[in-house]
Give the backbone structure.
Amino acid sequence: MISFYVNDMTCGRCINAITAAVKAVDRDATIDIDLPAHNVTIHPTVVDEAALKRAIEGAGYSPVRQVKGADLAATAVTSKSGGCCCR
């Protein structure tokens, strides 16, 4: 299980974009997304953390690896694409 904090994931379109990006590199991965918490949890089947992070970044988001017990909500993360796809 790999979890990322994705501060610039703010809506359903973001969820769809991240899901598509992950599925493009690991079609059998299980993805759990908690939008209010900006958390993406992935159970990969064939790729590693680095490949998943690159896939999410390629979709225009800024994933930060979740560290158990860490409060990343206070971390300022900005996307290379300017944030939410709805802006």
